[in-house]
Design goal:
single chain, 5 helices
């Protein structure tokens, strides 16, 4: 695997992990506490699965970017991030809202958080690919 792909994947994984901590661990903690009956207790959470999921998502996001958007400039990266973020954020937030009794505010927060992660992730990949040889 080429250097820009590895650096992009690692950087994206770190970015998304930090953003997940801020969004879910800090900003939404009171919402999760108020809806505690919907979630596993902390000691039963499968954090290894969560970290692996984030890694696989970062790999796929990076490879899709490399196939179709690398070299398309900052605007192309932004467009990719918005499209991906809306597509995944809709299902994350409102798809879950449609089948679980979560508050609408949580659905909106998940949607916006997912959108922000995708947009920042795509911009990060554009920078990494330019810096480390994957795109002009």
């Amino acid at each position: 695997m080429r250097k820009h792909l590895i650096i992009g994947i690692v950087a994206l994984y770190v970015l998304w992990s930090v953003m997940d901590f801020i969004i879910h661990g800090m900003l939404l903690s009171s919402t999760y506490a108020a809806t505690a009956g919907l979630w596993r207790p902390m000691e039963e959470m499968k954090m290894g699965v969560a970290y692996l999921t984030t890694l696989i998502a970062a790999i796929c996001f990076t490879l899709i970017y490399a196939q179709g958007r690398a070299g398309s400039g900052w605007n192309g990266a932004l467009q990719y991030g918005v499209y991906f973020g809306v597509a995944t954020g809709i299902s994350m937030g409102f798809g879950t809202y449609s089948v679980m009794p979560i508050p609408m505010s949580l659905a909106v927060s998940w949607f916006l958080g997912t959108l922000a992660e995708a947009v920042l992730g795509a911009l990060l990949l554009h920078w990494a690919f330019r810096r480390f040889g994957g795109a002009a």
